[in-house]
Design brief:
Elements lengths: L1 H20 L6 E7 L2 E7 L7 E7 L4 E4 L4 E4 L7 E6 L5 E5 L4 E5 L5 E2 L7 E2 L2
Antiparallel strand pairs: 1-2, 2-3, 4-5, 6-7, 7-8, 9-10
Organism: Scleroderma citrinum Foug A
InterPro entries: Cyanovirin-N, Cyanovirin-N_sf
Keywords: Signal
Length: 123
């Protein structure tokens, strides 16, 4: 579960950076993680910008592929990565596998931060 705790913080940091670059306010707030479930309150795309509570199972968005030794978008994350941090380019860098090699992924490649009021995986 260490990977998911770190990942949520990094994804939310990437969200802030992404929204600041677009000069628009964040559309998801009050994010929290319980186990591998990310929860947040997000705005819908309706004229009233209705706020709705939404959840996302992080196991459905990220996976570690031991064959090519890379993080990727997909299902079936196995608890194989540690020491995850966000680099200067907003990429998620982790040490993975038995040999603790370095691998990276852009978290925004795998997660739709607000899909009409919901958090969702892109695949």
């Amino acid at each position: 579960m260490r990977f998911f705790s770190i990942s949520v913080s990094l994804i939310l940091a990437a969200l802030s950076t992404h929204c600041a670059a677009q000069k628009s306010p964040p559309t998801c707030l009050d994010a929290s993680l319980k186990g591998h479930i990310l929860s947040a309150t997000c705005q819908r795309n309706d004229p009233n910008r209705t706020q709705v509570k939404t959840t996302l199972d992080m196991n459905k968005c990220f996976a570690y592929n031991p064959n090519n030794k890379k993080l990727q978008c997909g299902k079936g994350y196995t608890n194989s990565c540690t020491k995850c941090e966000l680099d200067a380019s907003d990429f998620l860098d982790c040490e993975c596998g038995e040999d603790h090699h370095q691998t990276s992924i852009n978290p925004l490649d795998c997660v739709k931060l607000n899909d009409d009021g919901t958090l969702a995986c892109k695949q």
